[in-house]
Amino acid sequence: MKINYTMFGTGLTGGVRVILEIANHLVKRGHEVTITSLGRENDHKWFPLKARTIYVKRPKYILGARYVIRKYLKNHWFEAYPQAEIRKLAEATPDDIDINVATFCFTAYSVFASEKGVPFYHMQHYEPLFFDDAFLKKLAEGTYHLPLNKISNSIWLHNIMKEKYGVETPIVNPAIDHNVFYPREIEKESNKLRVIAFGKQTRWKGFPELLKAMEVVMKQRNDVEFVVYGAKKPTYESRVPYKFVQRPSDEELAQLYSSADVVVTASWYESFPLPPLEAMACGAPVVTTRYGTEDYAFHGKNALVVPPKDPKALAEAILRLLNDEDLREQFRREGPKTAKRFTWDNTVDKVEKLFKGALKG
Predict the structure, then answer these.
(1) 145 phi, psi to nearest 5 deg
(2) Do you find a cis peptide bond into 48, omega within 30 degrees of 0?
(3) What does the pLDDT read at residue 188?
(4) Ranges for the Glycosyltransferase subfamily 4-like N-terminal domain (predicted)?
(5) In this predicted model, what pLDDT tens digit does every residue of 31-69 receive, in sequence order?
(6) Mutual orientation of helices 134-142 and 105-114 as an angle, nearest 10°?
(7) Total count of domains within the chain
(8) 32, 104, 127, 268: which could join 308 in a potential S-S bond, CB 3.0 to 4.6 Å?
């Protein structure tokens, strides 16, 4: 098959990683795969991509002009975003393709408008939640009404599509690389119990709630060290000290997870987030919030699952694990068992089947 993935960028994010992993595995199976994306060739250098790429470069002066107009002139007549990007991606899409896959809300319009290949929409979140601007929120919601073959990446997203729009979507879960994420023997530098978390400035990632929870934890225990990793250190004010590890490689991240006594995810909502599953694969006890983790996080069996936006519940769960060595050992056993179910071969088997079925009509 000739398959095109239409993307709004190929910089390092969990969602981008998933699409590029699928693309590589499709190439390995003999398919011709193209990534048509906004951005520049260096954007995906963090990933060993095997697919062909077509980049649509946005002139820097356009981005600067838009920023000035929006912030200072507040004149929407000059605001082309995202219309210009949608049009350019549709025009850049190869003509001779069998399958054309949208990967983000605005790329759904590009795929629909291009009329090239059988149109798919590989949904990785309920994207109206991404926007504060009411107009952009409505544009994101509008994509769920387009005549595209839709794929949900989680039970949570599948249920939203069914409840809000009456659409039954197949679920294709992402996966992790089990050659990287597995339990390691790590010699820690101190005897302190280690809590590890992903940190990002994006508000719905829940980092302020995590900081409040860690205040409670560190007031009750003085034998805890807090380690945060991410692309850029969040700027939220913190009353608790923490070490920040910037842009760890996958190998370094696996070692970090393996050294943890607790790994925490505090997001308000996710749709199959990779960090809790990666941590489980490395044998780390996990505390996570509920929305989007239903596919693999089972409260009391392989993780502790708490409501989002609740620092008190988050602190109680972290303390419960820190105080209960037997429960930590249970999660160290059960987590890798759960993680082993999620392989890229299983993911791509489902993707291939959906594509082939659509081509047969």
Answers:
(1) -100, -5
(2) no
(3) 81
(4) 14-168
(5) 999 999 999 999 999 999 999 999 999 776 566 666 666
(6) 50
(7) 2
(8) 268
Is 275 strand, coil or helix?
helix
Same domain, 147 and 54: yes
Contacts of 176 (CB under 8 A, 6+ apart): 274, 277, 278, 281, 339, 342
pTM beyond 0.90: the answer is yes
Query: Starting at the edge strand that comes first in sequence, how are the strands of the sheet with 304-306 ordered?
Result: 243-246, 224-230, 193-198, 262-265, 286-289, 304-306
b/e map 33-61, b = 16+ CB within 10 Å:
bbbbbbbeeebbebbebebebebbebeee
CB 231 within 8 A of CB 255: no
50-54's contacts with Cβ under 8 Å and 24+ in sequence apart are 50/23, 50/24, 51/5, 51/20, 51/23, 51/24, 51/26, 51/27, 53/10, 54/92, 54/93, 54/94
In a domain, 184, yes or no: no
pLDDT along the chain (361 residues), means of 10: 98 96 98 97 96 89 64 58 89 98 97 98 97 92 97 98 97 98 90 96 97 97 97 94 96 97 97 98 97 97 98 98 98 98 98 97 79
Q: Which CA distances in Å does 231 have to 204, 223, 228, 247?
A: 16, 27, 10, 5
CATH number for the domain that contains residue 89: 3.40.50.2000
* Residue tagged 């609740």 (tokens): 310
How confident is the model at residue 83, as a pLDDT? 85
Please check whether residues 115 and 8 belong to one and the same domain.
yes
Domain of residue 69, residue span: 2-175+343-360
Tokens 């601007």, located at residue: 133
Q: Whole-angstrom Cα distance, residue 108 to residue 5? A: 11
Residue 350 placed within a domain: yes
CA-based nearest residue to 103, from 34, 25, 27 = 34
Tokens of 32: 């011709």
Instruction: Report which DSSP code applies to 264.
Output: E
In the block, tokens 């990287």 appear at 180
What is residue 84's predicted lDDT score, i.e. its pLDDT?
86
Q: Is 132 exposed, middle or buried (0-12, 13-18, 19+ CB in 10 A)?
A: exposed
Q: Are residues 215 and 121 in the same domain?
A: no
